[in-house]
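Researcher: Last one for today. Full complex below.
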Amino acid sequence: MPELPEVETVRRGLSPVMEGARIVRADIRRDGLRWPFPDRMADRLTGARVLRLARRSKYLLADLDTGETLITHLGMSGRMLISGHALGKFHHDHPAPEKHDHVVLDMENGARVTFNDPRRFGAMDLCDTAGLDAHKLIRVLGPEPLGNAFDEPYLMDALKRRNSPIKTALLDQGIIAGLGNIYVCEVLFRAGIHPTRKAARLSSTRAAGLVPIIRDVLGEAIESGGSSLNDYRQADGELGYFQHNFRVYGREGQPCVTQGCTGKIRRITQSGRSTFYCAQCQR
DNA sequence: GTTCTTACCTGAGGGC
DNA sequence: TGCCCTCAGGTAAGAA
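Model: Here's the assembly. Have a good evening.
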């Protein structure tokens, strides 16, 4: 599931083949994914040079020399595949497009970038780079958890006014941008906070304590993705998914990893999503 | 205004 | 082997 760390890993993997390179061909293989693709997307991409590949929350942002930015969201199952580039060298050998390959970008350097998304929850849009912050998907986002605007006073204040469970509040992209179901579970476990606890009822000390934990969990995941990036990409050209060692996520019924704890990991449903936690460690 | 539920979508995995 | 059912989850829109 692409959350912030996975998207950042994808960005780092795409950067050497896309940044500074011109798109010589854009093959748009369907009308859209979650939403229709923008008008004349192929025309607007063809010939454009990628100036910079950035990330905001879970969105990949490719600034083009046409004054537009290509916004990409990987949704639930989106992947970026690179062909024609291995061991730092470019070639022009590409596999035939497969099912669910929706957008294929050929770069002038010979690399091919393919957006594959079986569940089609992903999205692509184009907007003026100058107006990016006002884009409907971007303007509703809260601060970046790894950025300077996200700090203890901010989070304490944001949580204080939320009556929803802390799990739900941390999933709210307007409070923090980029956390998804998996990392919220991991963060709450490390913080020792029960997922059903009301956000507003958290002590300011515990709310503030979430800030460094969120940074640590995301930072470690990015590092783990980055360190496995090269080997992984050389294997099959795929970016974005790595087997992290989760402490609670997906571990229902298994023993808690905390030393001395005899509890087992439980699974409950909150807002239609699975929450994993240890009832002994998290209160 | 806030919070909760549902729809979107396909593949994987379990049960029979 | 194959069919049916459930589940996974980011986001938006509608409901409560």
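Confidence is low (pLDDT under 50) at residues 228-237 of chain A. The radius of gyration of chain A is 20 Å.
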